[in-house]
Specification:
Layout: H1 3-16, E1 23-26, H2 36-41, E2 47-51, H3 59-73, E3 76-80, H4 83-88, E4 92-95, E5 110-113, H5 116-125, E6 128-131, H6 147-155, E7 160-163, E8 178-183
Parallel strand pairs: 1-2, 1-8, 2-3, 3-4, 4-5, 5-6, 6-7, 7-8
Length: about 190
């Protein structure tokens, strides 16, 4: 766990007082096959989990384990690619590119966003937009990354979470408009 990233998140939470978690662990079947240890280390009251493990055998069973741990630790949970599983787990949804219905559930929803159109759709759906990739990342080695200037320009009107290569060493480059961070390695 990146201690400088956690310290940054605590400062953002104290300064902005957001209603949503500031840190989001994105599960990843290849880079974080067993997310449970990482979830156990997440700071209470500051973090959430985006459960992705799409297409993995036993995903529903793993989702139930993740949901129990998140509930016990007071962590938000969103589920990608399966609204039925999200409902069964009493979790929010993680949309892809802002594609989905309007959030009327009362739960936090998140959405990936890679450009202005997807960011607009995510906000219109009532989801917390996660704009990526900000910096080069092993998850998407072919993607160059937006960089802090383009990320800030894209998100200035809406505010968003940053994902992709964000660490405690570079998060401050994103400026005061950054409402939170999603990560795999930095929180894993």
């Amino acid at each position: 766990m990146d201690a400088r990233l956690v310290a940054w998140a605590r400062a953002v939470k104290a300064r902005q007082r957001p209603k949503h978690p500031v840190l989001w662990l994105f599960t990843d079947a290849q880079r974080l096959p067993d997310p449970m240890p990482a979830i156990r280390r997440l700071p209470k009251g500051l973090a959430g989990v985006v459960f992705r493990h799409d297409g993995v055998a036993g995903r529903a069973a793993m989702g139930r384990q993740v949901a129990r741990l998140c509930k016990a630790r007071g962590l938000a949970l969103t589920v990608s690619a399966d609204w039925r599983l999200a409902e069964a787990l009493q979790a929010g949804r993680h949309l892809r590119g802002g594609r989905g219905p309007r959030n009327r559930s009362g739960r936090i929803w998140t959405s990936s966003s890679h450009d202005a159109v997807e960011l607009f759709r995510a906000v219109r759906c009532g989801a917390l937009a996660v704009v990526s990739p900000v910096f080069p990342t092993p998850s998407h080695p072919e993607a160059k990354g937006l960089g802090p200037w383009r990320w800030a320009l894209l998100t200035r009107a809406q505010g968003a979470l940053a994902l992709g290569g964000v660490t405690g060493g570079n998060v401050r480059r994103l400026g005061p408009g950054c409402r939170g961070v999603g990560a795999i390695a930095a929180l894993g």
